[in-house]
Amino acid sequence: MDYRRLGAGGLTVSAITYGNWLTHSSEAAENARRCVAAALDEGITTFDTADVYGSPDYGAAERVLGAALSGVRRGSVEILTKVCLPSGPGPNDRGLSRKHIMESCHTSLRNLGTDYVDLYQAHRYDDETPLEETMTAFADLVRQGKVLYLGVSEWRPAQIEAAAALAAELGVSLVSNQPQYSMLWRVIEKEVLPTSERLGLAQIVFSPVAQGTLTGKYLPQGKAPEQSRATDARGSRFVGRYLGDSVLSAVQRLRPVADEAGLTLAQLAVAWVLQNPGVSSAIVGASRPEQLRENTAAAGRKLDPDVMARIDAAFVDDVHGDLVERDPAKIATPFDVMPAWKS
């Protein structure tokens, strides 16, 4: 496993973060335990979750992760969670108000069975709450010892800059952003990455294999494999936008590139995001331990410039041109209204 500093702070994280967005639920607790055990065996020390994961059984993913990590020496792992998205039925069960941040943090600590979280992240930006209120609440949690470091997720450059300024004024560490990033989704490259680098924030990226698209298991004009995310009512909302034939054909053009590098397509995708110096860690989920072991093998693999160029070339065709989404305006667009493109 490769280990990296998280931005300008002192925290070290594993280059692969184990995430449990769609894979941990009360019904899948035993399988989750096996996957967490496999993650630890592979040298993963960083685990990412959120108060909303497992909805409508809010907090289920945190509880499952906490149980799976029970008995593991607390100082040997980094536990990351988030607050903002709706985590209950009430009007204050969402957003970044002081009330919701405080209550959600305490609930997350109980769910996870820990006295503190290593990184507490604002899951989205809240336009309805003053940023000063949000950052002061976060700073208070840091001073209380319940949170060690602060991060954001899917924030725009101006929002990150304003939060970083307030964090510095309050004397707390804002060290990371958690955006979506993959070969197919590069909307952070133009503005978010340079802004973050200037401010000392690292990226902990999610969906590096584009919801499974970059594993090559979805074939152009083919039927989605049984029990894949594309056949799941919940998961299909997210992967569906990638399943146009032109995009799937481009993924197949990566096979010889991966073969020559001695990698699977999934490993190539994870190694690609980790190649960016602004990225400290890539979040990988798994429904089976062997998936985790495969993706973890990408940590520390370096891709030479020729391989990077061939990857870029694979996502260009004569009909659609560039198949990669690069528009910075797509940052933080709700997933369920994102259209498919390049079909």
Automatic annotation (TrEMBL):
Q: Which UniProt keywords apply?
A: Oxidoreductase
Entry's Gene Ontology molecular function annotations: oxidoreductase activity
- Superkingdom, natural source: Bacteria
Asked if Repressor is a keyword of the record, the answer is no
Q: What are its GO cellular component terms? A: cytosol
Record flagged with keyword Oxidoreductase = yes
Task: Give the matching InterPro entries.
Answer: AKR_Detox_Biosynth, NAD(P)_OxRdtase_dom_sf, NADP_OxRdtase_dom
- Specify the NADP-dependent oxidoreductase domain's residue ranges: 16-314
The protein in question is named Aryl-alcohol dehydrogenase-like predicted oxidoreductase
